């Protein structure tokens, strides 16, 4: 069963990280070059129904995998052993992702124009850095954590 959770976790990571890299490397530069925020909007509209369930899958399978390593909710953020440290860092990165996404949704996307496209670009860059940090953190777990 745990192997299935790991496969689903990796599948979710592929979609979440891959989708955001595509946005950062292909669509965002094109939108900036052509001064056309709708390019980013159109991508977000298509990616969201896939990306959000993928992130939800990450969270569910991540928590189940953490339980397999005996990292339970009552130990979160205690930084008491190597694996728990990684899980807690991943949870903090997750909270940062949610905060950034909420900020973009409420304050930037509704009035997206060529004037605040750079601001959204910074958000997209940060989301990518955090997503890759989550991926890198995940790889430490099989080595016993940090
Ligand atoms: C965007 C979010 C995330 C990404 C991209 C991500 C990515 C990864 C990757 C690439 C691995 C390595 C698997 C391996 O070594 O084969 C991993 C492992 C792991 N992740 Fe995540 N992860 C995310 C979110 C989470 C969350 C929210 C949690 C828990 C709260 C979590 C808990 C774990 C655990 C426990 C493992 C170890 C799995 C194992 O080796 O059995 N992850 N993750």
Order of helices and strands: HHHH
Distinct small-molecule ligands in the complex:
protoporphyrin IX containing FE
> How helix-rich are the residues, as a percent range?
over 70%
Outline the biggest β-sheet: none
Query: Total domains, how many?
Result: 1
Please, how many helices? 4
Beta-strand segment tally = 0
User: Overall pLDDT, averaged?
Assistant: 96
Q: What structural class results from the helix and strand content?
A: mainly alpha
Strand composition percent: under 5%
Rg, alpha carbons: 17 Å
Report how far the terminal alpha carbons are from each other: 25 Å
Query: Low-confidence parts lasting 5 or more residues at pLDDT below 50?
Result: none
Characterize the overall form.
elongated
Features:
0% strand; elongated; 146 residues; mainly alpha; binds protoporphyrin IX containing FE
What does this structure look like?
- The protein is mostly helical.
- The chain has one domain.
- 79% of the residues lie in helices and 0% in strands.
- Helix 3 packs antiparallel against helix 4.
- The structure holds protoporphyrin IX containing FE.
- Protoporphyrin IX containing FE (HEM) binds next to helix 1, helix 2, helix 3 and helix 4.
- The site of protoporphyrin IX containing FE has 23 residues, from helix 1, helix 2, helix 3 and helix 4.
